[in-house]
Amino acid sequence: MVVAHHILSCPDTVAAKKVFRDDLSLAAFQRQFSVWNSDVLSNKRLRFTRFLQAAADGTLFDRPNFDSPFQARKTSQPAMFDLLQASADDVDQIYQKLMAHFSDVALLAAAGDGLSFMRSIQAIAADAPRFHGQKPFVLPILGLNPHLEFHVVHAGWRNFRHYINIFGRMLNNWQMSQTDILVSQWNACRFEMSKLVRAHSEYFLELLRTPGAPDISRPGDFASGAEQNIDFRWAFSFLSDFGFLWLDMMQARRSKKIQKTMLLMREFLPFGRTTEANKTNYGYMTILFVYLNQALHPDLQKLYGSVQTLPTGSRSAAPGSEVGLDWFPEELNLFLKSDVQDHISRELINKRILDHEFLSTADAGLMDFVHQHRALAVGKMKKMDTDVAQIKALLRQTIGSTWAQATRANMDSEFGLDVRATVYRKPWETILRSMTTGSQGGDEHIYDYVSKHVKTYAPWHVWKP
Questions:
Q1: Residue-wise DSSP of 222-234
Q2: For position 328, what pLDDT does the model report?
Q3: Rounded distance, CA 47 to CA 263, Å?
Q4: What pTM does this model have?
Q5: 432 contacts: CB under 8 Å, gap ≥ 6
Q6: Which residues pair with 120 in a beta bridge?
Q7: Disulfide engineering: 83 pairs with which of 14, 17, 90, 315, CB 3.0-4.6 Å?
């Protein structure tokens, strides 16, 4: 678990217990998660145009030009052996140690992967006086990268797995042929997603250059055209509802746009709540993520937002290098796995944890010195041109190479995705259905789902009548 602590900012606000706003309406909070929310829909339309234009310019995956105002300062404590976040009792012991160590701190922001966040919000809801009635005041942080972004892709992969598998079989690509994915496969999944997003973007641009096609600035007309052809609709929904959601979330995190991330999480809730995606834990964690990024006193909100991402390394690193706080324990874990291989002992592990703290600080300083008069490094992706070309060829062959061909009336899928409606559920329909149906299939309106969980895990909040 990573801890971001702050001693001086907002102590009066915390001490006076003016931590949470009292002007929030529960009804308004619920409505934010609707698939028809105007802010969500506006962002989807704008990003469709923005990302297609970036694809046309060859900058689709370029990092945002954002220089972080902060630099991660890492200090380590000895490893807490025999404790895991899977157990509520273990989490209780972890917090006992953390809160004792930071007993003079006004505000303690504790971050980790999804399970750490889940156990934290459960523990705080069960004993709010312990976590909110004394120093330090504890606020949990959801790890944005790699864990959250993986689970967004995991939900999308489940929603679109039959469509993705078509390209996997065509490319003889093992990863793209998976019906489900593991967090250990995240880097491979991200690369395959990049191929699919780029190929679909470039294919759509080809269609937009043919007679009768709408202007790139009119995504609504593009969507209306795609509705005429079931295969075009699959391709459009994959890119608009999934591919661009993931890319938008990644770029928002890289540029420390927490409010944008919160908007995307509101979009994610019905997307991840389908019976196919079945993201039950990340469902209510999404609600609490949005709650914590809206319900705090404005001064605390600014501080809380600023510590949810940090740059990976030295100030000389490339812009747009913000990561979630869950990235840092993963980095330490990777270091220990590669470094501590012989004569393994608890003493050696603790020694190397302290060594890592020094080495990472020294490395950042050395890189700053070495690169002080050099241009910033530019990251380059692995080659994917061949696979992208084959994906586009299949899209042209199946959907059409012109706007007129792609938008012809056709409800018989040449991809073979309409043979068994109970298997090949259309994601754009299941996302809408999740407004009134829970991930386990029962009747439950998403507004009731939001209300139930925010009341359960934020029982202290007083909502505006």
A1: HHHHHTTBHHHHH
A2: 87
A3: 13
A4: 0.92
A5: 35, 270
A6: none
A7: 90
DSSP β-ladder status, 107-112 and 2-6? antiparallel
The pLDDT tens digits for 43-66 are: 999 999 999 999 999 999 999 999
What are the residue boundaries of the structural domains of the chain, listed by start? 1-465
- pLDDT tens digits, 280-321: 999 999 999 999 999 999 999 999 999 999 988 655 567 888
User: How far, in Å, CA of 310 to CA of 294, rounded?
Assistant: 20
The token pair at 343 is: 């004569």
At 115, is the secondary structure helix, strand, or coil? helix
CA distance 325 to 365: 21
Task: Determine contact, residues 316/45, Cβ cutoff 8 Å.
Answer: no
In 10 A of CB 78, how many CB atoms?
13
Residue showing tokens 């840092």: 328
Q: How far apart are CA 256 and CA 322, in angstroms?
A: 7
Give the SS3 label for residue 176.
helix
Instruction: Tell me the two tokens of residue 295.
Output: 């319900």
> What's the CA gap between 304 and 345, in Å, rounded?
37
Name the 3-class secondary structure at 75.
coil
E strand or H helix that includes residue 324: strand 322-324
Q: What's the residue count for the chain? A: 465
Q: How far apart are CA 328 and CA 22, in angstroms?
A: 35
Residue 67, φ and ψ in degrees, nearest 5: -100, 120
Cα 139 from Cα 292, distance rounded (Å): 8
Q: CA–CA separation, 247 vs 245, rounded Å?
A: 6
Closest C-alpha among 109, 170, 101 to residue 141 = 109
Q: Are 256 and 68 in contact (CB under 8 A)?
A: yes
Q: In angstroms, rounded to a whole number, what is the distance separating the alpha carbons of residues 179 and 413? A: 20
Residue range 143-192, pLDDT digits in tens: 999 999 999 999 999 999 999 999 999 999 999 999 999 998 999 999 99
Q: Do the Cβ atoms of 304 and 122 come closer than 8 Å?
A: no
**How many angstroms separate the CA atoms of 446 and 444, rounded?**
6
Cβ atoms of residues 216 and 208 within 8 Å: yes
